[in-house]
Amino acid sequence: MSYHTSMRKRATIIAVLLSGVANAQYTVEILHSPLVPAANSYGAGAGGGQQVGHTNLFLVGPSHALLWEGSAQSLVDLHPAGWDASYAMATDGKRQVGWRERHTGNIGQFATMWSGSSKSWVDLHDPTYQETNALGISGDMQVGFGFLANAGTRAVMWRNMAASLVSLHPQGFDRSWANATDGNQQVGFAQETNARHAALWTGTAKSYIDLHPFGYVQSEATGTASGQQSGWASFFGNRHAVTWSGTASSFIDLNPGPNEEWGSRAFGTNGKIQVGHVRQAGSHFHAAAWQGTASSYFNLHTLLPAEYQGSGAFSEAYGIDPFGNIVGWANHVPTGADHAILWRPVPEIRPVILLGLLSFYSLLRRKSNLHR
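Above: the chain's sequence. Below: its structure in token form.
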């Protein structure tokens, strides 16, 4: 190889790297594969490089809890033997939470935690409650809700075992629900009659903070990380994605357009990026991401392959991990089935590295000129 050919090849490599800086977004990984034990699969949560979900939608048919680590080939079926259905809703990268179901005999849903395999499941169900569901996990903290026959649902928290269950239900409310935790805070909602208010806790029922924004009808917090909360608030019959920073007055409306034309919901946050879906009037909802403002809205659906585009194409983003990996699902138009999807961020080239590459390229040019 000649010196000039070598220089041209190196310059081409650098040019490719530099072109990636301006266009850095996400790559798409289809998590659904023939390994999935059903036609449909849904990504529900992400954490620590893992993604979790399930096969069928609630009440549609028997489901299996699923676990991935970034690829379709990494699929692990978490479904515990002897149970009729299971769902995995959240992971922190080490353990996964959700519930298992019994459809005959002792009918119900029972909170469950796994450690990466179907045989590793741990029962989080407290028999004080008729049913329990685990929806969020971070380290040694798990959250969800329990159902009491005479009192309805109650937001609850665990520390790795059924006996550790603590009620987060605030006094004066009819029902409550905890959706997520970052290990310090817990978020969900508290509801009185038909008035649902986004809720924030720090480990006890008395720590309840009402996040409901003034002027909105109902609200719910769905995710939390590093002091930031995500969720939605309804405004004149339409839901808007919102984010908070610990107080009701801190809320930011993320809806990307006028209320009569746009609707949106946020389902998760990693403290910097919020994810969910957006729906424009006359169209289907599409997976979306924001960075704290309505103007930062990005349509994740546009990155999906051609077979997930067109009429009847839906998608949603449900979870995001600290690395920015986003999990959700999209409708596969040719078959009509729903497939679990992973949006993986393209690594950014930091300014200092960019400066180094430019300096190196300049040096190559000078050396090339000397050899002419």
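The first helix runs from residue 3 to 22.
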